[in-house]
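Ticket closed. Logging final result for DMT family transporter.
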Amino acid sequence: MPPKTQLDRLAITLMVLFCTLWGVQQAAIKIAAAGISPLWQAGLRSVGALVLVYAWTLVRRVPLFRADGTLVPGLLAGLLFSIEFALIFAGLAYTSASRGVIFLYTAPFFVALGAVWLLPQERMRRAQWIGMGLAFLGVLALFGENLVGSPGEAWKGDLLIFLAAMFWAASTLTIKATTLVRASAEKTLLYQLAVSAVALPPLAVAFGEPGVFAPSAAVWASLAFQIVVVASASYVGWFWLVRHYPATRLASFSFLTPVMGVLAGALLLSEPLTPAVFAALGLVGLGIWVANRPTAD
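Final structure:
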């Protein structure tokens, strides 16, 4: 399939599906955190997904071990992926799933900034910059609510997940700007899962985490959802999209995920929907529309 310059119906349909799953993922992480400590949960997630995706490549006979120049960028992408999810899981120990998903999806803003230097063929239109800016203002409004109106340590979680967004953007740009762009989606994902599966459990031990301390049906179901649906199926689909469609257009469309994440937090975790959350969602939604509407420039 040759690279596309626009998002077609297939890409839009997949992005809506994936954004819904990724929004629910934040709530699933919070539910599983009731019985598994953060870095252990992230590590178990990568180990389980690594097994499933590798089995998938065997069934489909996807070549993985050819000398194609992807080893170094693959290991780099894996390292960035590991840091990203270590920060996400640690951050959600402090902040809510609703807030966390909004901060995480500042990543498209950083993808757009990096693309100026690394992906000159994916020129950003003026409308895309305006849309990104509107969405980013929404995130800033949400962060300000914690700094001035909410006591406690929620701002720490917000900051950790904001940093995770930067590493997610760096991972996306690494894939688009290196030989990984020619690799299969499965191979790209396996680099990330393999590095994180090796790195995260020892990191959890180093930080003295208790591991699985209160297993329950809800905890295991949430972890299984993350492994099978999110980290395996949806991530293979995401890397396929990154390979074939413009990263900046995919990234701006993925701002839909915060909407799904806030709804999942309210429905599954009874998290409060404050005025700042609604304001952030409004600005994010407006940013999506502005960035993706047909325009002459």
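DSSP finds twelve helices and no strands in the chain. No further action required.
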